[in-house]
Amino acid sequence: MWNRPRFDLKVRLTLRVAAILAACFAAISAYFLVTADRAAHARSDSIAAIVAKSLELQQGKVQWVANPRSDFPNLDPVSAYVMTPGLCLAFRGPSGDILQRFCSGAPVPANPPPQAFAAFYSSLFDPGREAARPVIVRGTKLGEAVVSVDPAVQTAEAWHEAGRLMIALAVALPLLCALVYAALARALRPTHMIRTGLERIAANDLTTRLPPFDLAELSAIRDVFNHLAESLDTALAERAELTRKLIALQDEERRHLARELHDEFGQSLAAIRALASSARQTAAQDCPSLLSECDGIARTATGMMETLRGTLFRLRPPDVEELGLVASLEGLVAGWNGRSRGATRFSIRFDGAFETLPAAVSANLYRIVQEALTNAAKHAGATRVNLELTRRPDEIALAIDDDGRSNEPAAKSGMGLLGMRERVAALRGRLSFEAGPSGGSALRVVIPLEAVDRQILDHAA
Prior knowledge:
- This protein is α+β, with helices and mostly antiparallel strands.
- It is built from 13 helices and 9 strands.
- Strands 5-6-7-9-8 form a 5-stranded mixed sheet. Strands 2-1-4-3 form a 4-stranded antiparallel sheet.
- Residues about 410-415 have low confidence and may be disordered.
- It is found in: Membrane.
- This is histidine kinase.
């Protein structure tokens, strides 16, 4: 299944903020560039208007004094007032020829604009564009006053106005992104606590609760999380209590059935064996041909009694409370070794003290081991079964490994495994059944001591 790539939330939000800031910075820079271009053209237009007006006054003065020696057009008087670096003043006659032109030199800028900026600015704003105003005297157009600015000077002025801002924004953008990332990392720090809480909930630690958070959104998540944890803890506690009662009722039914079998079938089989023995004595005197039939009845009754003893042992195991869990499990393993006659080798190892376990916990552990051994020997066809029961400071761990058929359906989904799951759930524990590392099956049961302590309190009450 294809999975989409996952990105860190802080990085994703920081990139989005950076994109918004970059767009804002670009808009601000564009605004300054457009403003600078308009100001340059407005200045050129105003100077062109001044030059045109001055030339009109010159021509009017010439006509008024009727001076035949006319030096029109004369740009010297007006150039003394309006000339700036890189500015050019010119008069274009009616034929389109430039009759007079004055240009001031353009100084070399101390910090020339980058070539990339100059090319960009030239492609967008056409620096050095002429500004022309007609010179009209008594309704007659004598020519045009033309004003232009050296493109290099105008580009340098634009760079002076907006370029430094662009550099400042380019420096500020990474700094702002770093500050945004740090702020997001601080604001999203509680998400690690939420993730840890979910992982603990997934590990069946339903006592997990989240602390209050400053952010309203995270506080809402915290309230839902804690309510869910409390509801789940209550539901599992009720389920565990119901399962415990059902298991207790099942065990009671087994004990009742064992008593009925022992009292009814046991006595009947004992009577059959006694009658077979009596009939054999009679047949030995009166009818020797019936001896084999009497022996067959006695053997059948004896076999049925052995089967009945095994059934009674499974229905009503030895009193774990009196013998203790260790002795009961050792007797169970010894019984399986005796019945298998070497076909399956069972071994068990203990690590820790189990004398203080309550009777209910010991009985459930005994039943779990009993069902596991039955599955391994009868359904999985194992030849080697190793059991290890360990008591740690905070839990009890049971490990059962065998070399049988791990894919046997009865071993995985039979009633025995279902019964084990019910008993483990009643103790608020965890059960896993999977293929072993070197073949066979591996059963793992972990029971938290908190559940054991709860059983002790229930038992004391």
